[in-house]
Amino acid sequence: MTDSINNAIGNTFTKLSYLIVDDFENFRLSMRQILRSCGADKIELVANASAAIQYCAYNHVDVVLCDYNLGEGKNGQHILEELRHKKLLKRSSLFLMVTAETSREMVMGAREYQPDGYLTKPINRAMMEKRLSGLLAQRNALLPINREIDRENFPEAISLCLQTLPSQPRYKTWLMKTLADLYYQVGDFSHALKIHDDVLGQRDLSWAKLGRGKILIATQNYDDAVTTLKELVSKHPDYMEAYDLLAEALEKQGRPTQAQQILEKAAEYSPNALLRHKHLATLAGSNQDMSTASEAWRKTVSLGTYSIHDNSEHYLALGQSLSDLSEGDSSSEGSAHADEALTILRRMEKRFADQDDIKLRSRIVQSRVHAGQGRMNEAEKALESVADGLDPELMDPEACLDYAKTLFRLGKEGEAKSLLNALASRCSDNPPLLQKIESLLDEPVGFRQKLQARSLNRDGIKAFEAGALDDAVSTFNQALEIVPSHAALNLNLVQVLMKKYKDAPGNRELLNRCQRCLEKLADLPEQHRQYRRFISLRKKLEGMRS
């Protein structure tokens, strides 16, 4: 009986191909010996990440046994991340993380990319056989389903899951989860939701609650999604995917500040997830929280050193956020932010030297950093160094926006507005870009001034709604001292002045002030969201003056 079991295990191990990744030769040889004693035959040994990824690119591997710590360069998490990203591992392949380290940071970071299991050093044959045998039994039982998923034949995979459920009760959880995911993939949200609800009706399982939240977001039931995902995060604070989905649901609800807070909490729990730090950085930037944005971009850049997700845009975004922080700040902290921005941009130029426009994008931001510190000669020199590339007709739209921002900082307001108006005409079919152009035309100032002007605008609206017209006029005027060409602010002031004129019809100076506000907006592009309001108020003023 024992011999037949050993033969079965041996047969299972024999048919498969293995890849062992470890920087110590003795450990690689020891692992190979253990696998051979289990009946394995096709075993490849490599010492580092690049060799492992290259081998997987050209060979099918059934089982990867990868050490987490591989010395200088990429670690096991980076390998798993890249193999998943490039789809070099089939669903039927197994990836086991081998490590002597069990720190929370390591486990949480690796778990983000879902290894099939962990093996803790030291490893012997009994441990290897026990751990792999269970995983291989499941692999073999579910192989037909995984093959169809690899082929993206989701309807056939769904059919196989339904057929397998009665005959493989041992794998019911895996089958139910996979079935729900497949229904989600094909857009059958009602069947996917029913599976999750049925499972939750019997047991409070995290994956089912997460899946339910995902479907509620997809079907725009954001309130229910937030409630479901908050419960999940509360009960299972280490279930990282729930934080990402909860932040997404909060954003969809129009609650970006709360979404940012959720991602900050997630980043504390699992500090090595690059894409989450990137999401946090982007969100914090849109919330005008430049300190948090800079720190998150800093972490994104650091984690990208050996990651497949490394990108020049991360360096550029860090440089831009540090530029915002340093602008007009002559303190030692402001100077330090400016120096860091220049350093990170120079690093970007070297690291991504083969990419088009990298030097151009870098020097545009460097110019703005210098201008923000009052170093106008250095600011002009930075632009002169890429003068040949500063053609608005040929520049990437995002580079144009950045260039316009720098022109504003250099006091070249006319050039900046002309550039943005031309860009608006060129990209009239790109609403997100038009909104960015509009925002820059309205608020061509640093983020601190933006926050102050926005706060004053809110106060002015409150005063107007409360009937305190003089207070509203005073508040809007304060805001316009910061951003004189802001369309909404000028039009808000016009409306208050018109209301005052109705109460005191003889005061023609009120109409003259309205005229001066509208004249500021004479070049307002038709694509601007305030354009129709501008035309309407201008006609109304003409009627009041006649």
TrEMBL record:
Tell me the SMART domains matching this sequence. REC, TPR
Q: Which residues form the Response regulatory domain?
A: 17-136
Q: Which residues carry this modification: 4-aspartylphosphate?
A: 67
Which residue ranges contain the repeat TPR? Answer: 240-273, 453-486
Task: Give the matching InterPro entries.
Answer: CheY-like_superfamily, Sig_transdc_resp-reg_receiver, ST_Response_Regulator, TPR-like_helical_dom_sf, TPR_rpt
Pfam families to which the protein is assigned, alphabetical: Response_reg, TPR_19
**Does the record carry Glycosyltransferase as a key word?**
no
Out of the domains of life, which is the source? Answer: Bacteria
Q: Which of UniProt's keywords are assigned here?
A: Phosphoprotein, TPR repeat
Q: What is this protein called?
A: Tetratricopeptide repeat protein
